[in-house]
Design goal:
Layout lengths: L11 E5 L7 E9 L2 E5 L13 E4 L1 E4 L3
Antiparallel strand pairs: 1-2, 1-5, 2-3, 3-4
């Protein structure tokens, strides 16, 4: 299991809403209230406003 509280901002991750969806590439924004947040529209902390992130129900680290 991943300790999301230790994942660095802008780390590449894959997210989806449920098992039926395909994985979407995003950048990690934060872990708050037991939820994983990713920057919207493929943005990073450099290109997004602080409130431009969304929670996701499933996430995993992207492996290159």
């Amino acid at each position: 299991p991943i300790d999301w509280s230790r994942v660095e901002n802008d780390t590449k991750i894959l997210v989806r809403i449920d098992d039926k969806d395909t994985w979407t590439r995003r950048y990690f924004a934060k872990y708050e209230y037991n939820e994983i947040f990713a920057w919207n529209d493929g943005k990073t902390s450099f290109t997004a406003n602080p409130n431009q992130c969304s929670p996701w129900s499933q996430a995993k680290l992207y492996k290159e």
